[in-house]
Amino acid sequence: MDNLGVVFMSEVVGTAILVLLGCGVVANVALAKNKGFGGGFLMVTIGWGLAVYAGVIAAYNSGAHLNPAVTLGLVASGAEEFGSGVPVNLVSILTYIGAQMIGAILGAVVVWLAYKPHFDLEPDAANKLGVFSTGPAIRSYGWNLVTEIIGTFVLVFVVIGFGRNGEAGGLAALGALPVALLVIAIGASLGGPTGYAINPARDLGPRIAHFILPIKGKGSSDWSYSWVPVLGPIIGGVVAGASSGVLLPILG
User: How far apart are CA 32 and CA 68, in angstroms?
Assistant: First the structure.
């Protein structure tokens, strides 16, 4: 298998594991009759951080972007190669992002399979959607967008900073633990307003899965909000990447 094939499979598997464990912890907390029911936002935040940890470990062959905002942030930073020595070009960018989307959809489908009886018994359609995708605590599209931009800026800027210290083109070379702790920190500090997607694939992929799966009483997939957790992270990631070349040498 050539390098792009390895990258594709690595990103699919890593992102699937990320979403399986991340959306899985939300299902455990949100759906009735689970042993984790009512565990709270901190449990969700820690769960997502550990999901990132597992996804990064699994996707080491590709540099473990697992997130289009990270991929585009690295492009904006001027990186010439991604993980595994893959050159930065249109084909490699689309390979990363396409694999991340496929992995996110697959991971969300497996969450549904794992919690199928609980989805069937859950009376609240909003709780079912919340397992798959994010939604704002207060719906204000402009401010929700700002929150996602800020959260993703922090993620990508710090990830690039990690990479500069290790001279690496992706998350896996940093060690998974620092990235997991960073995600927990962002969730605990900035996650309340929107549920902190900070990853277009993490939100859009599971939202697509929610739309196509035969989930009993699932209600709307809330497409009117779906652009916020896609556009916000892309803007935040690109701004972080573009500014890293100026700010990181000054801060370093």
Answer: 33
